[in-house]
Amino acid sequence: MRTISYNLRKNRAIGELADLVDTHGAELLCLQEAETVNLPSRIGSLSLVHATEKNRLGLAMYVDSERFAVRSAHAFQLKKSLHDRLLSPAHERLLGARIHDRATGSDFIAASFHAAPLTALNSLRRIQIRTAIDELSGIGPGLPTIMVGDFNYPVFQNRLTATMLESGYNTNYSDKRTYNRYFLFRGHYDFVTSTGFEIDRVQTLGRGSSDHLPILVTAARHGALLRDQLPLAA
Q: What is the pLDDT of residues 132-154, one digit of tens each?
């Protein structure tokens, strides 16, 4: 399964998405800082699943509708930073979907995530990430889960990795930095956390008109979890 995650920098990179999807054969596309009220219903071969509604610049997800059937999709509010409260409110920082994979006959959870900006503390971002994990488990208890996005967490990542392991999640960073615009803030901002998946590769793609670089995540689900797939809740 090939997933692209891209922070569009206030929607500036929206015109690049069709070529990205086509060039890299993406089956899932997760966006941050998208102008959600004007998103197209399709980007390349992918169909819009859901987009946040309470922020003008928010999250969105597209999937290959030939392979995937979306059971449900939800946007979630997370604990707000001072920046969110005073300057640029972002009410919904998590978008999750329960998806049925026709190729395997099984379900999984996919999510697009955008953490609080660097003006907040890493401790707040860890709270947001742990809350996101709890919210996603509510729409698919025990299912394999993959969450990609802009984590705004370029330093002290060992602490984050350890926190994720305590929650049963692995954290995988890309082969190159995903933010290079300002020297002091360069680093891996965009990455993936997952459970029940084998992450084969996380690749940083070429620079576009955003200050972030998109990432391509190549992943496969653990065979044991596929065999033990939980039934769809009534």
A: 999 999 999 999 999 999 999 99
CATH 3.60.10.10 fits 2-227, yes or no: yes
Question: Alpha-carbon distance 201 to 98, whole Å?
Answer: 23
pTM (2 d.p.)? 0.91
Measured CA to CA in angstroms, residue 157 lies from 16, 94, 145 at distances of 30, 20, 20
**Once rounded to an integer, what is the mean pLDDT over residues 181-185?**
67
Distance CA 208, CA 190 (A): 15
Cα 226 from Cα 101, distance rounded (Å)? 11
- Summarised one tens digit per residue, pLDDT across range 5-34 is 999 999 999 999 999 999 999 999 999 999
- The structural domains of the chain, with segments of one domain joined by +, span 2-227
